[in-house]
Amino acid sequence: MVGTEIDIDQMNEKTPYSGSENLEIMKEAVNYNRFLRYLVAKHATNRSKILDFGAGIGTFSDSVPIPIDRISCVEPDQVARTTLAERGYTVFESAGQLTRSTYSYVFSLNVLEHIEDHEAVVAQLYEAIEPGGRIYLYLPAFNHIRTSMDDLVGHHRRYTRSQLIVLVSQAGFTHEDSGYTDFLGYFATWMIKLMEKLQRQPTGVVNKRLLIAYDRFAFPVSQVLSLIFKRVVGKNVYIVARK
Fold it and tell me: For domain 8-242, which CATH number applies: 3.40.50.150, 3.40.1500.10, 2.102.10.10, 3.10.450.350?
């Protein structure tokens, strides 16, 4: 087994994960979700043995073009685990149940920010990856654009690129690539933060109409700009690192 039981279950301890309404609304972000599926599949190979850390019901595991029997999922929610198992995935409740040096590729999208002791979790994932294997992490960026949405869904933090490099390096990984994505989304979130200061009780719930409009018209442009400004700023940050 890998490490101790300090892992994704911490999402449900001090800051319970909530905001299910936002999760439903985010299904409408067609271009954004297509982009995330592309990122997940980009680093997989036909011979990969893969782990999806914080898999939900397998939305992004489904994007990896390899046989399902080579994909494992860590997911603390029992209902989601049942769904994953019924679909054929190998399922674990926590990273502490993983065996050492098993996976050639681990990915995790918007999960670590929910976990208080993220250093311990990244160390567990390091142990679960075989030598030469990669990890891909995608996370919200910059604490100074934190909004009530972050509070609603239980975010402990948002990340900078340099913080993410330090996080994986301390676990033993070698940094290969990192950068920011959704350039325009940074400024949109900053505006939301300013608008919230004018509200007495911001709800943290995503505006569905604004989300759809941004996703359809602004997000494609934003991603082109992110190719230019990936080392500077964006709403999200990613890192690719190798064991």
Answer: 3.40.50.150
